[in-house]
Each structure stands twice: as structure tokens, then as C-alpha cells.
Amino acid sequence: MGLRGKSIVVGVTGGIAAYKAAELVRLLVRQEAFVRVAMTANALHFAGPVTFEALTGQKVMYDMYGQEGTAMEHIRWGQEADLVVIAPATANFIAKYANGIADDFLTTMMLAASARILICPAMNTKMLLHPATRSNMDILAKRGVYIMAPGEGELACGTSGAGRLPEPEEIVEFVATVISKKDLEGLKIIVTAGPTIEPIDPVRFITNRSTGKMGYAIAGAAARRGAAVTLISGPTNIRSPLGVEIRSVRSALEMRSAVIECFSDCDMVIKAAAVSDYRPARFLEEKMKKGPGDLVLEMVKNPDILAEIGSLAERETDGRKRVLVGFAAETHDLIENARSKLNSKGLDMIVANDVSRKDAGFATETNLVKMLFREGGIEEPPLMSKTDVAELILDRAEAIRRKKLGLSR
Ligand code: CTP
Predict the structure, then answer these.
(1) Which tens digits make up the pLDDT trace of 55-108?
(2) Per-residue confidence at 361, pLDDT binned at 50, 70, 90?
(3) Is 157 one of the catalytic residues?
(4) Residue 275 CA, ligand 1 centroid: distance in Å
(5) Distance between CA 284 and CA 266 in Å, rounded?
(6) What single DSSP character describes residue 311?
(7) pTM of the entire structure?
(8) For residue 219, which of 151, 170, 191, 398 is within the disulfide window of CB 3.0 to 4.6 Å?
(9) What tens digit of pLDDT does each residue of 175-196 get?
(10) SS3 label, residue 147
(11) How far is the C-alpha of 172 from the C-alpha of 168, rounded, in Å?
């Protein structure tokens, strides 16, 4: 998610959701960020510094006078960090920060901080909607502080409404969005993901093993980098990435309509979806009954969406120089098959996957890809997380786009 090596301070204040901060810290550390934690005295009632120390391997600051040596951590931490994220942020903390009150380590650090600041409010709905809290949040937003809207649902106080701390995964995504370079700002990118399903009758369909992970990783990374992303997705079980417009489709024909509709107003198409090449010739309105013998299902060919937009791109007259990226899922002759798809579908680049491997292709967290380019050459990165592969694909696709348009790197 682009957090590797980033320095992040997590500020924990005194609310019940402080327990979720431990998971947040764990996820940030897993993303290879350098994480330090500062707590208010009230937060100590809800979570223990030992937990955070174990997760980060760093000293946790909560007592300015008892713990600080000559290192001036209350000045340095917020200046050395790329981002300070306060999760959960109580109404009291927000009020103090908005008004410049600095009466403990965390609030003092905030006043001296030069890092970007993200606040994740979590509190009872009435407290959240109180005019004082709202105007304090307005003050902070006007100062350029990022505020993550709290979720709705059951609250610890027994009521239900707005005020829940978003899930740690969602906060990490927001953090990554705030920190990311915005090199794709102004671009419109279409990503397709997941399988298609081709119905036989009301209860049966034909599909494939794609889970959508690679396509969702690309869509999320492109959105973090500032692009306006439309994700045209077959059925998946993945949460939609932050800031991405999702268009849900089921069959290859539905996917085709959505892609064609969006194509004229885009700069890049990345087709990670595993599109069914065939569909049953007829959809049976009623459930098919078992007969005495075997069944032969007649299938007809689906349109090749990528080949179709490949020829549209070739004929483009608006000078947008769209970049087309395809995927090739192969079990054998990876390079030859991928090269032939690259040429026959009119692509700028193809990402080839050996789907017979256990650590690459469908339903894995990692991917081992080979990238082939229209202009020649193959790039063979090592086994990586799908998020890192996504970033790399976007880097290469953007470099191709800039080259086509004659822009400097
Ligand atoms: N694709 C598409 N429409 C189809 C089939 C595939 O747009 N009807 C796209 C996929 O999204 C992918 C690329 O074409 O980006 C290659 O898909 P793949 O399934 O690997 O190859 P096919 O062209 O279907 O060829 P084969 O199944 O014979 O390997």
C-alpha cells in the first residue's frame, strides 16, 4: 500500500475504541511502516502501553515528564513523521487540538508537528453531533487536517448511530491514501476484476476461480494515487477500495456493455477480469430437470472485450492515447501465449500469470508476473504482494502513457 518505510505516529486517546488501535498498529507494522505510539493518560484506562510496545518495538509515550529524556520526543516525533493518525480521537482531544491546548505529551506533540494529520473521531452520536464538536472539527478541517468520517452502527454506550471508529483496515487504507504520491491525478482509469458468471438456469451458472484480488488491488492503488477509478467488477467477496466507483456486473455481456460505455472517457484500461470465453447458448427460465441420460450443454462464444477496445483504441481520434493493459492467465507456454494475446488484442502491455502455481494467480495474496510490452522487452519482477504488483503495473502503464503523449517522465 505504499507505506513501506513511512514514519507514522499513532495517537491513542481515551475512548473504548482504543482497543482497535492495537489492530491498526499491527496492520501498519505489517505494511512495513515505522510506527510509534503516543497515548493520553485516559487512553491508559482502555489499552496498555505494553501492547503497543510489543507491536512496534518502540517506546510508547504517555507521560511527558516521567518518560522524556533529553531527546525532546514531543517536538521530534511529529516532525520526523510522514503522518500522525489519531485513532480513536475523542471529543475532548478534538476540542483541545482545535484550540491549541497542549497539556500532555500527545497534544503538545500535535502543536509542534509538521507531518500530515489524520483524525479518526469515535464517540457517542450526541457528542459527535454536538455543535461544539462539529465546530471544532470544522476548524481542524479548515486547517488541512484530514478527518475520517466515523462509521454508523452499535456503539459501546448501548445506543446505535454515527460515532463508531472505522475498522482498522479502513483506517490503513485512508492512511495510505493521505500518504500516497498523487501522480495519477486527473486520469480516468477503468479496471475490470473478478470472474464473470454465465447463467444456465435460475439456480446454476458457469464461472471460474478468479477472486478479484489483483483487480481490486490495482483499483485501490490507482485511487490512492489520485486517479478517478471505475472498477467494473464481476461477483466477488472483496470490500470495495476507498474512493473507487464500483460497477457491479455478472456476465461477460454485462461487463462488455459497462466497459464500452466508460471507454470513450478514459485514459487507461486495465483488464484484470477473468472473462468467460463462452456462455450457455440459451438461458432456461425454469430450473432444468434431471433427464435419464448425460447432458451436453451448448455454448456460444462471448465477445472478446479487450480485443474490441483494442481496435477502438487503434482508431481513436481524440488524441487521448489510451493505454490498454491486459492479463494473461496461463498454465503453459506463458510467454508465447502472452505475447500472442498482446499482439492480437492490440495492447500496450500484458501481465502474464502462471495460474498453475500455488503462490500466484487466482485467490492468492502474492503474485509472480511477467510484464510484456508492445514495444518489446519482458520485465520479470520477483514474487510480490498483489498490492506491490499493482503499484508496479500502474508505474509502467503511466510511463507508457506519458511516452505516447510525448510528456517528460
Ligand atoms: N478478455 C476479455 N474478453 C474475453 C476474454 C478475455 O476482455 N472474452 C481479456 C481478459 O480480461 C484478459 C485478457 O483478455 O485481460 C486475456 O484473458 P485470458 O482469459 O488469459 O485469455 P483469452 O483471450 O480468453 O484466451 P484463452 O482463454 O484461450 O487463454
Answers:
(1) 999 999 999 888 877 778 999 999 999 999 999 999 999 999 999 999 999 999
(2) confident
(3) yes
(4) 6
(5) 37
(6) H
(7) 0.92
(8) 191
(9) 999 999 999 999 999 999 999 9
(10) strand
(11) 6
Query: What distance in angstroms lies between residue 220's CA and the mean position of ligand 1's atoms?
Result: 22
Instruction: Establish whether residue 232 lines the binding site of ligand 1, counting it when its CB lies within 6 angstroms of any ligand atom.
Output: no
**347 Cβ closer than 6 Å to some ligand 1 atom:** no
CB 255 within 8 A of CB 192: yes
**Of 141, 157, 179, at which residue does a domain stop?**
179
CB atoms closer than 10 angstroms to residue 183: 14
Q: Do both 219 and 173 map to the same domain? A: no
Mean pLDDT of 386-400: 96
Specify the residue with its C-alpha closest to ligand 1, atom 8. 304
Specify the pLDDT at position 42: 97
Atom 20 (ligand 1) nearest CA: 328
In a domain, 136, yes or no: yes
Rounded CA-CA distance 397/20 in Å is 37
Same domain, 28 and 93: yes
Q: Which domain holds residue 131?
A: 7-179
> What is the number of domains present in the chain?
2
Residues 6+ apart with CB under 8 A from 188: 227, 228, 229, 230, 265, 266, 267, 268
- Ligand 1: centre distance to CA 201 (Å): 24
pLDDT digits (tens, 9 = 90+) for 123-147: 999 999 999 999 999 999 999 999 9
- The finding on whether 252 has its CB within 6 A of some atom of ligand 1 is yes
The values of phi and psi at residue 81, to 5°, are -80, 155
Mutate to test the pocket of ligand 1, among 197, 263, 279, 304 (most ligand atoms within 8 A of CB): 304
Ligand 1 pocket: which of 206, 232, 271, 370 to mutate (most atoms within 8 A of CB): 271
Longest dimension (CA), the chain: 86
**CA 283 to ligand 1 centroid distance, Å:** 23
Give the CATH number for residue 366. Answer: 3.40.50.10300
Cβ pair 151, 191 in contact under 8 A: no
Q: Which atom of ligand 1 is nearest to the CA of 345?
A: 14
Cell readout for 128 is: 459527535
Q: Is residue 2 part of a domain?
A: no
Q: Which of 120, 157, 262, 266 is catalytic?
A: 157
